[in-house]
Amino acid sequence: MRKKFRWRLTLSLSALSVAAVTRATLFVAALTVMTSAGAADNVLLIQMQPGGHYKVWHTEGESQLSDDEIMALELTATPEGGEEKQTSAGPARAYETGDTVTISLPAARNDKALLIDRDDCGHVRHWHAAGATQLSEDQITDIFMSALPGGGKRITVGVYQVKAFMTKQGVTASLWNAPVK
């Protein structure tokens, strides 16, 4: 009788673990779908350029360098351009531009530059010159004008809800899909 009870208990635990694994797998799958559906959500860095135009940097882009590659390039940066180094994205050269470093990636198809920044804790952040979010000059101006140091009023720009913040590098704008009315 005791052996039969152990076997049933083992079978029950096996069924429980299969059910738990199945639930965890479904949770991860649902999370993946939700994340890819929300992939249009992003953060932009908008910098005012001479002549009143804007340079828009994206958090996501096609050129992917590791933090180690970025930091190695950052160490070589000079205003004239540091030594060219081979990276996973092809040849790269780092330029010192004031408080930041820009990495040039001439072999990249679209995303030919990365802006290197450090957050308040010293962690490396990189911004891509080309990304999926394309806004008109008027939309970028609306976002730029709404920015405040602690975060401006939430505005709607096209299909996005936007909250913009003034930072030392420019205006950082968080965008997410506006709810359908």
Q: What is the number of E strands?
A: 10
Which sequence of SSEs, written as H and E, runs from N to C? Answer: HEEHEEEEEHEEE
Query: How many helices does DSSP assign?
Result: 3
N-end to C-end Cα span: 64 Å
Q: Could you say which structural class the secondary elements and strand pairing correspond to?
A: alpha+beta
Write a concise synopsis of the structure shown:
This protein is an alpha+beta fold.
Which features does this protein show?
3 helices, five-stranded antiparallel β-sheet, alpha+beta, 181 residues, elongated
General description of the model:
- By secondary structure, the chain is α+β, with helices and mostly antiparallel strands.
- It has three domains: 1-37; 40-60 and 133-181; 62-130, no CATH class.
- Helices cover 31% and strands 32% of the residues.
- It is built from three helices and ten strands.
- It has helices at 2-37, 67-76, 137-146; strands at 42-48, 54-58, 85-87, 90-97, 100-104, 113-118, 124-128, 155-157, 160-167, 170-177.
- The strands form two sheets. Strands 2-1-10-9-8 form a five-stranded antiparallel sheet, with helices on one face. The protein has a five-stranded antiparallel sheet with strand order 3-4-5-6-7, with helices on one face.
- β1 and β2 (54-58) form a beta hairpin.
- It is elongated and about 50 Å long.
- The termini are far apart.
